[in-house]
Amino acid sequence: MTAAAPPPLQIRILPVTPLQQNCSLIWNEATKHAAFVDPGGDIEKLTGALEHFGLTLTRIWLTHGHFDHAGAAAELRERTGVAIEGPHRDDQFWLDQIEDGARRYGVNGLRDVTPDRYLEDSDVLEFGGARFDVAHTPGHTPGHVVIHNAALKIAFVGDVLFAGSIGRTDFPRGDHGQLIASITTKLWPLGDDVTFVPGHGPTSTFGRERQSNPFVADRLTGYAGAETQAADIAAQRTTKRYT
Ligand SMILES: [Zn+2]
Ligand SMILES: [Zn+2]
After folding, report:
1. What CATH superfamily classification does 9-239 receive?
2. What is the 29 CA–ligand 2 centroid distance (Å)?
């Protein structure tokens, strides 16, 4: 028996909006079909990348409803006819205030959006001949999802986890304990060797974060053991700068 060769997927990270949100562009080198994860803004930069690589957009996926992740989705759908999948329905209240949120950061041109399909835990997405698994990971926002490809050992985790930090939970319906639980029960089991693309900043691996992340290292969470530490909201406001 021989395993099928993995599809020839390419990935580029395109930081968008003044918050430098990591929009991921994934494409199949053979078919030139492309997917965006979290097209948050700077739509000309996104369409320019499609043109540059000679790609046709066929998927738009959202991890959560914050404007820097979802703000260009409505216009992309309008221009390309591609349906929007994700996040979980519990983030619709965030998707309904994209314009307001963006304006508070001085960003114009982003739009509220209603997805064509809400995602649920254990949903499976197909793109480019590859399978992507969905996990519902509330805490930063109640409807946050993470998208994972087991063959490529890569996960798009939005604002759940960063290299050296975790998502803010001082928003309406944020929940620190729930975020820690999402990370330890939904992300860590995917494997230490999984590389993740966070919503902001550099990539890392789950294994590295289990060793050294100041919020969710195993010695703090007691992953496979002890208790989680209580949240310190004041500290979060000063040490976590991402939305
Ligand atoms: Zn963000
Ligand atoms: Zn966010």
Report:
1. Ribonuclease Z/Hydroxyacylglutathione hydrolase-like (3.60.15.10)
2. 30
Count of alpha carbons within 13 angstroms of residue 107, beta-carbon side: 22
Domain positions in the chain: 9-239
Please determine, for residue 6, whether its predicted confidence score (pLDDT) is greater than 50. Answer: yes
- Ion ligand 2, residues whose Cβ is below 5 A away: 66, 159, 243
CA of 19 to the centre of ligand 1 (A): 7
Q: Which residues pair with 195 in a beta bridge?
A: 154, 205
* Confidence (pLDDT) at 241: 62
Q: Is the model's pLDDT at 229 over the cut of 50?
A: no
Ligand number nearest to the C-alpha of 168: 2
Amino acid sitting at position 165: S
Structure tokens at 198: 């966070």
Q: Can you read off the two tokens belonging to residue 75?
A: 């216009």
Do the beta carbons of residue 27 and residue 33 sit within 8 Å? yes
What tens digit of pLDDT does each residue of 95-118 get?
A: 999 999 999 999 999 999 999 999
Inform me whether the pLDDT recorded for 80 exceeds 90: yes
Q: At 152, is the pLDDT very low, low, confident or very high (cuts 50, 70, 90)?
A: very high
Q: DSSP label at 135?
A: E
CA of 3 from ligand 1 middle (Å) equals: 37
